[in-house]
From TrEMBL, chain A:
InterPro entries: CHAT_dom (IPR024983), TPR-like_helical_dom_sf (IPR011990), TPR_rpt (IPR019734). This is CHAT domain-containing tetratricopeptide repeat protein. Gene3D superfamilies: Tetratricopeptide repeat domain. It comes from Kribbella sp. HUAS MG21. It comes from the Bacteria. Residues 615-850 form the CHAT domain. SUPFAM superfamilies: TPR-like (SSF48452).
UniProtKB/TrEMBL annotation, chain B:
It comes from the Bacteria. This is Uncharacterized protein.
Length: 864, 153
């Protein structure tokens, strides 16, 4: 590396050290200064000290050190030295929010310098320009800097320039060019041992991955960067900001907000960084559904940015304020004018938010009936580059769809809806984690709703079915990315089981903390899983569905604007029936589940009970959930597809369905897939008994008599690893165990085994789910509705893993009453009946005793 | 709060004396709550006493194939009426027996916390669940008022 100070070679090493290991550099600078060196060396030492302080976040003291360094440089009479310190001081002032003063120093430094040094000064001027949001000027400076630095062989500074240029390319939407710059920078940093900046380059590659919509890769890069920052002892608030962006894109908004608020509270960051932290927190609050909180945070950010003269940032903050006002319910001309003005400024600044701003302007204009403004704004919203990330593309397609709808151009509206959802499919499939895939669908809900509304207007039931299927249970359409050999995950899951088992024996706050830590570790590992090469999503082939249904009747419930419609496919004909408000159906579901739960407890309810009978409740439930569609069922077998929000529905209560085979599936496509799973050639039966079930024991022992060749795991043998090994690819599996549904974190819903809980994360390690599975436990059929219309839960996770049929409960079930029901189900299965048919027979036999009857109505047959 | 930094026995005794006299003064909120409870006594209400609480009945959990009773269920009964209540994270669900149309109100110390309709099957969903202790007041169409015991979330 060329030196500016001639004889000061050893001292010169302090400057790069200050960036990579600030604590060490400060210590060396102090001991050097103690020896009272000449002006040149002293200037370098103070400069390194200042840089070190700046890296550690203490900008005020850093500026003081740098002013001393400048004075010493002037004394030395070396213009290169003076230029170098001026540049550092200018950059630091810029970072401290004193950009104008900083730029003046840097302009002077450019005049004083020559050759490679000019390159380094230009880089720092670009940094200040970047803080100000003057991207194009910054790019010009960097282009010149890279040329000079490469020519003079200055690898470290070339790497820095490329890192900055990559960052700006990214801000302007050029992900490919950005990644190319970051990749070169990373290589140069590695070659020159720049640990801190290497971490920064990794972080920036994470940003590129994020911009491309590859969230798992982004999280991996950012976590790697975090470890490297920690290793050099630096707190780096930029990393929290980047993680916030990734978490938001993943739909994990509450977590993003918590992380930002925590970072702000920790007091980390320079003056300029504080504004950016508040800005990120505001976007997180907006996504988390807290518009008031978003507005407050965005106003704080905007005030900071205005004071620092950072237009690009303050305009973006204004946009968050306006969006928050819209989400708080504000409408009208005044807000419209403000949004249009901000959108125009975002256009001029080349900010990526401009499309979303035009979309909001378009919506507001539609709302106040300003059709020409709406048309123009939505047109602007619909413009996007092919390079744009999938979420931005889908937003642009939404703009196009809304515009076409306003113009009455149905065909182009539907095509825009389809292409917007395609973009989100692409986005979703880059992710390996079930949870992220499900959450990602939320972004397409409006596109799907536009198309559904149109199908309803035309009263076209087939189209209603197709669009209803297009954006329903899509996350369950493909199996999760398998991690069978992830030994660390296996170890963490085992540790978690151990901790929970010990916690059940005796509460212990430190064990409770350990449980939370392990759950967090397991979940984060899963979130980082890469998506597979899945080759796109297959649409529901309606003709194949009709052929496969044969005599069976399909009832798919589709919600449009809060009203439930039943699409019925029977004998190849598709009809639509308006059922009624979704809220009324939800109330009946709640009421039924309430009553079944009371009955499961055996309850204090005796003969004196004068409340509504199960028959009365069932009749009302049937009317609220199926309406007139009940009349079309005849005595056929039925497949029902409820929306995610109504999945916890005890279908056995509905009198019209009580005596027949009913299969429940999250989508018609899922039923079609389940029909095509073939049973394994070896008819392996697995019986599992979890601890603490007295009647369950009888149940499993009696079943063991009926299946003499069965693998029986009980009494200490029912451990997670043994159970998983046995379940893999089994023909019939029966698990009698305590079940827990975790609404706070549904993938930790579990079955209780001898060594602790078996969670959904464990199930996802199966190569192949059992062909048929009976989950004889409480709440095993529950799932949490998330995203647009997706489910996360124990039994729903088994469907994409290859389970053709699952019998599970949607409420707590009574232990003694469940045993005879289960024996009857297996009798039917051994006779060759389908799971739904066997269950229907068993349910009929349970009539008479109210508790047994309630148990029979608490289970549902999932799948085909 | 008393400064815990006692230097000698005298200070300690003084602190203890203060603590004892402070305990003798009844906080204003308690007085208000007492008055509120007294005024309720005068309304013509059926007082329904707690007859079952799942939180106090761990044996019951054994009959259920669930790890932990996430939901708490309660039963209040008077001579003529039963109110079955379930506390979920998002709402208070209830069933009035015998069923009758009416309204239900959750009342705490400071007055009304939430109110909802009781439908023709005697069912109600009251939400969000109060975060402070409350009693349910069910008023039926026929003019009966049923007051449950205190529910502590």
């Amino acid at each position: 590396m060329p030196t500016a100070g001639g004889s000061a070679g050893a001292v010169e090493n302090l400057l790069p050290l200050a960036l990579s290991r600030p604590h060490d550099a400060i210590a060396s600078a102090r001991s050097l200064l103690a020896a009272d060196p000449a002006a040149v060396e002293a200037s370098i030492a103070h400069q390194a000290w200042g840089i070190g302080l700046r890296q550690l976040g203490d900008v005020t003291t850093a500026v003081r050190q740098l002013r001393t360094a400048l004075r010493l440089a002037e004394q030395s009479g070396r213009s290169e030295r003076e230029a170098d310190v001026l540049a550092t001081l200018g950059a630091t002032l810029g970072r401290a929010g004193r950009s104008r003063e900083g730029l003046a120093r840097l302009d002077r430094a450019v005049e004083l310098s020559r050759g490679a040094l000019t390159g380094r000064v230009l880089l720092r001027r670009a940094d200040v320009l970047l803080v100000l949001g003057r991207h194009r000027e910054a790019l010009d400076d960097l282009r010149a800097a890279i040329t000079r630095l490469r020519r003079s062989g200055d690898q470290v500074w070339e790497a820095r320039s490329r890192n900055y240029r990559g960052f700006i390319q990214l801000a302007l939407g050029g992900t490919r060019r950005a990644d190319a710059d970051f990749a070169v920078a990373e290589k140069l940093y590695a070659a020159t041992g720049q640990e801190f900046e290497y971490a920064e380059a990794r972080q920036n590659r994470g940003l590129v991955a994020y911009s491309r919509g590859d969230l798992p890769a982004a999280l991996r890069y950012l976590d790697d960067a975090g470890r490297r920052f920690a290793a050099v002892g630096v707190v780096w608030p930029d990393l929290a900001i980047d993680r916030c962006g990734v978490l938001l894109a993943a739909g994990l908004s509450a977590e993003a907000l918590a992380e930002m608020d925590q970072t702000i509270a920790s007091g980390a960051g320079t003056a300029t960084k504080r504004g950016e932290l508040w800005f990120a927190a505001a976007t997180a609050a907006l996504a988390a559904g807290d518009p008031a909180g978003a507005r407050e945070r965005a106003e704080r950010a905007r005030r900071l940015f205005s004071a620092q003269g950072r237009e690009w940032w303050s305009v973006r903050s204004s946009m968050v304020v306006l969006e928050a006002r819209y989400r708080s319910g504000e409408r009208g001309e005044r807000l419209l004018r403000a949004v249009v003005a901000v959108a125009r400024r975002l256009d001029a600044l080349g900010a990526s938010e401009s499309s979303a701003a035009h979309l909001l302007a378009g919506r507001l204009a539609l709302d106040v009936g300003r059709s020409r403004t709406a048309d123009r704004q939505l047109d602007l919203a619909g413009r996007h580059s092919k390079d744009a990330p999938p979420i931005a593309r889908s937003a642009a397609w939404l703009g196009k769809a809304l515009r076409a709808e306003a113009r009455g151009e149905t065909r182009s509206m539907l095509s825009a809806c389809a292409r917007g959802l395609d973009a989100l499919d692409e986005h979703r499939l880059t992710m390996g984690a079930t949870e992220l895939r499900a959450l990602a669908t939320g972004q397409g809900a409006e596109l799907a709703a536009l198309a559904l509304r149109e199908a309803l207007r035309r009263d076209d039931p087939r189209r209603l079915l197709e669009w209803g299927e297009r954006w329903r249970a899509t996350a369950l359409g493909v199996p999760p990315v398998r991690r069978p050999n992830d030994e660390q995950l296996v170890a963490e899951l085992a540790a978690l089981r151990d901790v929970v088992r010990r916690l059940d024996a005796a509460p212990d706050p430190s064990l409770e903390r350990e449980r939370r830590r392990l759950e967090k570790a397991v979940r984060e590992r899963a979130l980082r899983a890469e998506g597979g090469a899945l080759g796109g999503v297959r649409r529901l082939p309606v003709d194949e569905l009709i052929a496969e249904l044969g005599e069976t009747v399909l009832v798919e419930l589709v919600e449009v604007d809060g009203v439930l419609h039943a699409v019925v496919v029977r004998d190849g004909r598709t009809t639509r029936h308006e059922v009624g408000p979704l809220a009324a159906a939800a109330l009946e579901v709640e009421r039924s589940r309430f009553t079944l739960r009371r009955l499961a407890h055996g309850g204090p309810r005796g003969a004196a009970y004068r409340g509504p009978s199960l028959e009365v409740l069932g009749t009302r439930l049937g009317q609220a959930i199926l309406g007139d569609a009940q009349g079309l069922l005849g005595d056929r077998e039925v497949v029902v597809v409820p929306p995610g929000r109504l999945q916890a529905l005890p279908w056995g209560l509905v009198p019209a369905l009580a005596d027949r085979a009913v299969n429940v599936v999250p989508s018609a496509a899922a039923w079609l897939r389940a029909r095509r799973f073939r049973p394994p050639s070896d008819r392996r039966v697995v019986l599992v008994l979890g601890p603490g079930l007295s009647a369950g024991r009888t149940e499993v022992l009696r079943l063991a008599e009926q299946y003499p060749d069965a693998t029986v795991l009980a009494d200490g043998d029912a451990t997670a690893e043994k159970v998983l090994r046995a379940l893999d690819g089994a023909w019939i599996a029966h698990v009698a165990a305590h079940g827990t549904f975790r609404s706070d974190s549904p993938l930790f819903s579990s079955l209780r085994l001898d060594d602790g809980p078996l969670t959904v994360y464990d199930f996802e390690r199966l190569r192949r789910a059992p062909y048929r599975m009976v989950l004889s436990s409480c709440d095993s059929g529950l799932a949490k509705p998330v995203g647009a219309d997706e489910l996360l839960g124990l039994s729903s996770s088994l469907i994409p893993l290859g389970a053709a049929g699952i019998l599970a409960s949607v409420v707590p079930v009574n232990d003694p009453a469940t045993a005879p029901l289960m024996l009857a189900v297996h009798e039917g299965l051994r006779d060759g009946q389908s799971l739904a048919a066997a269950f229907a027979t068993a349910r009929r036999e349970a009539r008479g005793d109210p508790v047994a009857d309630a148990a029979g109505r608490s289970f549902v047959a999932l799948g085909a | 709060m008393i400064d815990p930094d006692w230097h000698d026995d005298e200070k300690l005794i003084k602190a203890l004396r203060e603590a004892l006299s402070a305990a003798g003064e009844v906080p204003a909120a308690f007085v208000e709550a007492g008055k509120a409870a007294f005024s309720w006594r005068t309304i013509d209400a059926e007082l329904a006493a707690l007859t079952y609480d799942s939180a106090l009945d761990p044996l019951d959990a054994l009959a259920i194939r669930s790890e932990s009773a996430v939901l708490r269920s309660l039963t209040f009964a008077s001579d003529g009426w039963t109110v079955e209540v379930e506390l979920t994270p998002g709402a208070v669900l209830g069933q009035l027996d015998p069923p009758e149309v009416g309204t239900v109100t959750a009342r705490g110390d400071g007055g009304e916390l939430a109110t909802a309709d009781i439908d023709e099957l005697g069912f109600f969903v009251l939400g969000p669940p109060p975060a402070v202790p409350y009693r349910l007041v069910c008023t039926t169409q026929s003019g009966t008022t049923i007051l449950t015991g205190w529910i502590t979330p």
